[in-house]
Every structure is written in C-alpha cells, then in structure tokens.
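User: Quick one: structure for sequence A, then sequence B.

Assistant: Sequence A:
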Amino acid sequence: MIDGSGTPARSVSVRIDKDRIVAVGRLRRVRGEAIVNAKGLTLAPGFIDAHSHHDRQAEKTPDMTAVTAQGVTTIVVGQDGESALPLKTYFEQLARSPLAVNVASYTGHGSLRARAMGQDYKRPATRSEIARMQDHLAADLRAGSLGLSTGLEYDPGIYGTPQEVVALAKTAAAGGGRYISHMRSEDVRLDAAIDEIIAIGREARLPVQISHLKIGLVDRWGDAPAILAKLDAARAQGVDITADVYPYSYWQSNLSVLLPERNFEDRAAARFALTKLTTPEGLRIAVFAPDPSLVGKTIAQIAAERHADPVETYLALTRQSEAYGAAHPQVERVDAVIGSAMAEPDIAAFIAWKHAVICSDGMTHGLHPRGFGAFAKILRVYVREKHLLTLEQAVHKMSAQTAAQLGLADRGTIAPGLYADLVLFDPARIGDRSDLDHPNALAAGVATVWVNGVIVFEEDAATGARPGQIVRRAGWRPVD
C-alpha cells in the first residue's frame, strides 16, 4: 500500500465499510466479509485530477471510463473561467444523476462575467457589474465552490482588468475559497502573467494555483529553472502559490487564443503564432463546427488542399469559426485545436517541482490524448522509465498533495475515517496507450477502482456503478 502521504510503501490490509476506510494494518478477517487478494499489486488513494474538463458532455459517458481506467476517482472542474452557474443547480443535477467519479468545482470568472454583462463584455466591468459577479460568486461559495477560476486568455475573461480579478479573489478569500488561473499568457507575456497571479495571492490573501504550467514560446524553452525560482521566491515571501501540470508537449485550446489582440486580419501576428508558438504542421483541428470534415487535419494540410498560404488559412478558419459562433450561440464548442508548443525538459522540471500536482486538462470527448492518458503516463514515463519521481512521490502528487492544494477534505489518503476512493494497479504495467492517432485508447495496468467504497472499474471495464459524490471545499457547511 502507498497511502498517498509520501511515506514508503508497506504491506498491510485495508478494510472498507460502506463508503469509508475503517481500518489499515494487519487485520483479521471478519466473518462474511469479502476479501480482495491483491498480492503483487499496489493499492493507492484514488487519483484526483486537479484540472479537468471531463464534465463536458459527461451525461453521455457517466461511467467515466476514460479516467477510471487511469485510477482517477475525483475530477475538479469549473476551470479556465468556465463553470456551471449557479453551482447549486449543477450540484442538484449531479445528486440526481451521479457519475462514476466524484466532482468538485470552481466558479468561473468568465461565467460570472457572462451572467453580469451579457454580450457587452469587451470592456472593463463597471463597479455595479463587479458587485453582481461578487454576489453570484458568494452564492456559489455557500454551495461549496472551491473558489474562483479564471481563463484570462479567453473571451470574456481576457477583458477583465487586474482590479476586477482582485476584487473577485477577495470575495473568494472571504468565503474560504481559493484561486486557480489559466493566466493571461503562457508565452510572450509569461513573466507578467506570473507577476499578476503572485500579486493576486498577495493582495487577496488566498492560495493561488497556476493551471497547466508551461512555457509555450520557443524562445523561452529551457527557462523552467528561472520560472520556478520566481515561484519559490514568492512562496518565501508568504504567497501560497502552486501549480498543476500535464505530461504532454502539446496543448488544446481554441483557434483565437493565438491572437491575444483578437485581430483576425493581422497576418504578422498570425505568422508569429505559427512560428514561435506552434507551426502549421503542429496545429491540428480537434473541433470545427462549421466544417467537421476538417477535424484531424493540420493547418499545413488544409492549406495544401486549398493551395493557400498557411497564415491566411489559419486566419480564414478563425474568422469562419468566429462568425459561426456568433450565428449559433447555442453551440457549446465551436472550435478546438491541438498545438505542439513545449519542450520536454521544461515539462519534466515543472512536474518535479515540489509544489506541482498533476492534471489532465482533458476531456472524454476530444482528440487530445491527455484525457485518457495523463495519469497513467506519469507513472509510465516519469516513474518507471525516467525515474524522475519515485512511485510514492508520484502517488502523493496525484492524491494527498492535490487534496491539500485544492482544499478537499477526507480524500487523497488511505487512512481510517476517510472516504474509500482507491485504485489497485500493477506498477510494472500501468501506462497510457492514447496518442494523437489513438486519442481515446484506455490506459492499461489498473485492476480495480473503488469510488466511495463501490467498485466502478474492474477487468478493464466499467461496472456500471455510479457512486460519485459532490466534493465541496474543506470547511464547507450547509447553509440553513
């Protein structure tokens, strides 16, 4: 057993009763109880996906096999500034129709902005609009939100001023919440973006976490040590700043994210994006509602088919997507692209950072393999192959440390009294099988997964049980 605390593995038995762990140690069998003989396998706390989009269209796949096959038992959603609003309604829906895994959620700044400002969002919010956002956030915190999430590279969050974000972060702090952010830049303005999140943590006096920490600018590759030194310096000054990381050198986002000025006629900006942020060969269409036949193709391939310049092809697709989205506001996701952009040494340095935990940033319905492989890849590549982490360190990052950094109580560790979220796996075999050509291939090496004491995955398949619970932040109490 690896209990999630970071201490060495040990040979013990674990007893669960209903949804809780009730004993750990050298135990004698109680008459009538079932026994799982796990000799040769490793038992760990169920993994917690610190930054997930697996809630999107979860009603289509409530068994959540994409994540349970990796040993994930809790997903943390409401990321990048986008969340269900109000959360109380979403939580009531989950209570009626639970998933196979637990769900915790932040409240999204972009969703708050949309509620307060409607379509007139391409400007700073007024004082009264910020007050309305604060009221909605406070209501979500009372419902159990983990805190505030921002997506400051995305519409509508990109138009939010630092003062607006700080005001909302202070509301989150007052309600016992935290702050997590897809920062304003992960490439050209990376340093300024890091300075902003540090300032938010300092001024609002709450824990802050960088979402999917990366260096997405070719000219900055290799700068991970300098960035981590800056984060460590902020921590030494009293700012509780942490990060989550996924183990891939390519991201998934929307077409417009590469144009921070949102000028879809700017050839110079597009050329820069396709040179310094990714390449035409490295930018692949994952979703394109105006023309689904383009899904799976790269910008280079589409440009060749059209006998066109890749820069103009990219801009034309972006304009087409923007127009389609304006004409079809009911469409949840108009476009998505996968872009190659990061260097492996930086990824490894971020994963190894003491205050980094693991995330997928993934979806069940998508073409990025991280949704089906992130956690299994950590164990295959960074534990078994590269020896960057010990098995105990990796499990700690994926369980107890994540629970602590995100403010989750009673999960993430194998100990009496805690919820029985458990994964039984083969350390010599666990690994990802998903890649860009097979993005939805299930991970291998997981024998059994329990969520709240109920087996949800066994013998390489979902059992059909859906015992997932709503996970609210530590210290939350129901409001009378």
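Sequence B:
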Amino acid sequence: MGNDGEGIGKYQGYTLFVKNALVGDTVRVHVMKCKKNYGYARLVEVIEPSPYRVEPKCKIAFQCGGCTLQHLDYEEQLRRKQKKVTDCIERLGGITEGYVMEPIIGMETPYYYRNKAQFPVGIKNGKLAIGFYAGGSHTIIDTENCCIQAKENEDIIRCVRSFLEEERISIYNEETHEGLIRHILTRVGFVTGEIMVCLIINGNDLPGKEKLVNKLKDIKGMTSISLNINKEKTNVILGNKIKPLWGEPYITDYIGAVKFRISPLSFYQVNPVQTRVLYEKALEFAGLEGNETVWDLYCGIGTISLFLAAKAKKVYGVEIIPQAIEDARENARINGIENAEFFIGAAEEVLPEKFGQEKIYADVIVVDPPRKGCAESLLDTIVLMAPKKVVYVSCDPATLGRDLKYLSARGYELKRVQAVDQFGHTGHVETVCQLCSKYSS
C-alpha cells in the first residue's frame, strides 16, 4: 500500500497504483494513466476481497478525498502504520537495533474525532452543493454527514443550507471569481462544547446575516459566529480579515489541563483526544525534573511548549508564523504560565543565530517540524548545542527516518519510539521519538 492508502499491484510486471484497493484484494481495474515504470488505475471490481476489507461507515467514502482507508479494518490500519514507521526508521534511518518500538496507540472510537471542518460551497447540476471535494479534484460531493467530523456539523450545515436557499445568496464560482459564499468553517471544543461558525465570503458583508445568526445561535454550544473576507482569486481558503457577527471572536478548549483560545485563523490540532496522548508521550520522553531549559522548535500556538512548561524551569518556543506566536503568548497568559518565552522566525534561522550570538543552552530540545522534516542547518545546531535529549515529533515517517540517520551519526542514540494514530482512516501517522546523547552522564 502507498503513502496515501492506495493499493499497489502488478499486471504482467507493470506496477499500478489503485485507489480503494487493498493488500489481499484481487481486482479488475481500468488503467487511466501510464508512465514508463508505473501507472494509475481506477478500481472497477473487487473479484476477491482482502480478509481485511470492511464496509465503510460513510456512504461517500469511496468518492470523498478525506478518508482513504475506511474500507480497511481499523486494527489492520494500526498494524500497517506501525510497520510504516518501523520500515522508515530501519530502511531510511539505518537503525535496526538498540531502541524500543512501543505498540501504536490507536483511538478507542476512530470516528467523529475532528474538531475542525472546512466545507466548500458551490453549484452542482444547477443546485446548491455543500460538502467535501472528491479525491484529487475540486468537484464537491454534496453531503451533510461526515463520519470523522464532529457530529454538531450536521445541524450547522442544515442551518446554513436553508439560509442560503431561502435568501438566494450567490455562490462563489472558482472559474469566474464571481459569487459570494466560498466556504463554511466550523470548530468545536471537545471539552468545553463551544462551537464556532465562520463563513468565508468573496465580499465585504453578508445580506440577511441577522437571519443566519438567529438560525445558528439556537444550536447548543454556539459561541462564535463570524465572516472571513477572502476576495483573492486563490485556492487558499481563509483571508486575513475577520468580521464578527455574534458572540465571542473565539472559542476555548483544553488539551489536558492547558486552556487554549482559538480564533478562525488559529492553528489548533484537529484531534484533541489523540493530541493529548501524543504530547503527554513527548513530555514523558523529555523526562523533565524541574530544573531544565527546553527549546521547542516549530512550536505553533505553544501546545507542546505549555505542556513542557509545567515540568521545566524555562521553555523557549520558536515559530515562523506571527499569528501563531501571538496565540502562544496569549495562551500562556490565560493559563498563568510565566516560564515560557516565544520567538518569531524560522527555527533553522533563529536557533543557529541565538546559539552563535548568545551561546544559548538546552537540556532538552523538542522538534515538531512540518512534513519536510528538519533543515540540515537546524540539525547541525542541535548537535553543537549538545542537549542531553532530543524529542522528535514527526508527521512524516520518511523525513523522520532521514533526520534520525543524521542525528544518530552525530552522537545521538534512538531509545524509544511511539506511533500515535491521530488521523484514523487516512494514511497519516504521528510519531514521537526519544534520542539521548551518547556523551551525557
């Protein structure tokens, strides 16, 4: 199986990638695109199903581009994700022994786990369509239900749909750049129950907005209703300007004991239950006793930083997005955390600069990079700073393997690995690794 959950099979020695096919399936396919050594095919018929094939819970699972593995038994999903992490550490990292691979932590219920949804709005066959994009396209699959999004979205979409139809609000057309309504953004606080709705519009205001507010505010938990202004001809969903309509300009939620204030523009982990599992494991791997100085690189809105601050003497967070750092500082304030400090800038620039000019020190360095992994200049600085421990949180096993190879060749030993399933029914897996310096007592 491929990185995105597609089945990889061979016909007369020629490799084909087939969406919705599983290991163990015998299938009939229609070849859509051929390259020299491989091609892409569409699943036509499952002649003999894999023993791991199950009926998807969602009726549009095979059309939608969100869930790529709902037809694969969940325990088998977990087994494959664990194997994917192990393979990347051994094959790309060159590390085959000396570490403990702990059993992957899956979800108790791998449904309705996402606290954020972005619904595209369009016209399909002359009718209003609200739902999700089909895989690899901008064709909207019209639906009110999603088995991995918060259940509250069903009531929200029904309200917005009826408002748009009753008021005959114009719908955005990507090709002509005309029409008003582009997307609907929702967020749900899983601990607090607070709900946010934000309509993304190609204009300055929404006609009949009072009627929409009156429909939405009756939904239990509704806390924030706003507009987001995006008049650019772009695939980027959100613009920079928020226009409040009703309630607070944010909602609040908790990960563990840490409270977070979340606006429409805030970055916040979409699976708060598994995020807590992941971050508590990162905190465990850091092994803090209260006297340590910790640097948290790619810190976002400070989620890991604020977890670490409860056990460390001092935590420094680095993030390139100014809005995220503003949120991190505000989140530290509302939690009464005074031993966390945040810097705006690229981690691969800030850390080398601080080390070169100020000779900063770290007992523990935590990295949580994007899918491309850590820049080599950042890894070099980490090695020069010589922290006793490095905790690496990864969303991509391939770049994790590459970076572990680099660190292990420069004095760090991989000790523990924990995979966490944060995105059930997709091919993605999160991993947290503990590395210890060979030269520390």
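The two ends are 43 Å apart (CA to CA). The longest strand covers residues 38-48.

User: Thanks, that's what I needed.
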